[in-house]
Amino acid sequence: MTASSAFSYPTTRRRLLGQASALGALSLVAPAWAEELANLGLPGGPSERPLTKAFPQKGEMILQRTRAPLLESPFEVFDKGVFTPNDQLFVRWHWAVIPTEIKVDTYRIAVRGHVKNELSLSLADLMSLPRVELAAVNQCSGNSRGFFEPRVAGGEWGNGAMGNAKWLGVRLKDVLDKAGVKDGAQCVRFGGLDEPMVEGAPKFTKSIAIDHARDGEVMLAFGMNGEQLPLLNGFPIRLIVPGWYSTYWVKMLNNIEVLDGPDDQFWTAKAYMIPDTPGANMKPGEKDVKMVPINRMVPRSFVTNFRGGERLRAGAPTPLRGIAFGGDAGVKAVEVSTDGGATWTQAKLGTDEGKYSFRQWSTQIEPAAGNLTVMVRCTNMNGLTQPATPNWNPSGFMRNVIETTHLPVA
Ligand SMILES: Nc1nc2c(c(=O)[nH]1)N[C@H]1C(S)=C(S)[C@@H](COP(=O)(O)O)O[C@H]1N2
Ligand SMILES: [Mo]
């Protein structure tokens, strides 16, 4: 993690708040957005993946659900570079009551609970703390759920419920130190401005252990790829939990609560549970599997410059490239196999943007006529490699397998 003084993003307080005020003006379109949401049709079957440009500050996205918004990044986006453009980074909300207007001057983040001084931080207070910048992959726990066999319930994501950005913000540790965490603190719970649309439904909150919260990496971000966050990605502030699934990356953050016991609220204690097994893998119908809250991400890799079914020319030198990430550790190696996994060739790795970032990989092939099968696998710095067979669990979380792309060659 580097200090951001050299970063050319306009981060003076006035400039950021100035931009934020500009967004305040922009948010005058909010009622129109609310109406548009109501008028958009729902997608049909799981194979139907309509594109939409109807969401504010978002370019072309795959529409999974209108309310609460579920928007997937079209996969082509990942071939353009390791940083996902803000207007095409995926969007996921649990509840549909999302503010469409944020008053940046009165926005406050409460820091409360098991602390010596409860705080109410303005955006200016927050931005006066030392700044840090970090590239990190934001990946939904259910990314790629649509590929689970047998099928499971939940958002039918393809592989585009992930994205990588350079996050600019302040350390959660510094915020907690300002409040002075009392002895005996166990975890920190986070909440945002969104609310359930049905009475009695549990508000979306998540928590992490106190030591994790104070590791100096978890941050409160107000910048994303050199701009402020799009509203739907959590403007003005979101939590970044590097290397962990983004269910913990609470958006529109306005509440930080230090607890002296475990968090027993629904979203941490009951939802987002995975089998406590390697790769979160179990058999359909298996009983008495110990479940734990989802946590660290695992390595994944994808081909990005060809879609399955695209035709290649026989004997032609053909560049092959894609992205990989190590999960909670850096990318150590990316290997490619064109013989069904019998032999593997090391791919060349692109610029290292930090251990939590996407990393580009590339190689070249000269395919023979026939049906080419390209397999790609990533190994992270902890020595963890992608599995040859897909994992399975009832919630469709943490999908992982060596990805295979079939390309006819003629
Ligand atoms: N306030 C709030 N934060 C939230 C959520 C939410 O519903 N409300 N969903 C979480 C989940 S499950 C995911 S996958 C990410 C999605 O982040 P994105 O929309 O910026 O891609 O936000 C997380 N933070
Ligand atoms: Mo998620």
From TrEMBL:
Record carries keyword Metal-binding: yes
Cofactor: Mo-molybdopterin
A GO molecular function held by the record: sulfite oxidase activity
GO biological process: sulfur compound metabolic process
All residue ranges annotated as the Oxidoreductase molybdopterin-binding domain in the record: 98-267
Signal peptide: 1-34
Record keywords, A-Z: Metal-binding, Molybdenum, Oxidoreductase, Signal
Keyword Kinase among record annotations: no
Xref: Pfam families: Mo-co_dimer, Oxidored_molyb
Domain called Moybdenum cofactor oxidoreductase dimerisation: residue spans: 296-401
PROSITE patterns xref list: TAT (PS51318)
Name of the molecule in the record: Oxidase
Origin species: Methylocella silvestris
Organism phylogeny: Bacteria, Pseudomonadati, Pseudomonadota, Alphaproteobacteria, Hyphomicrobiales
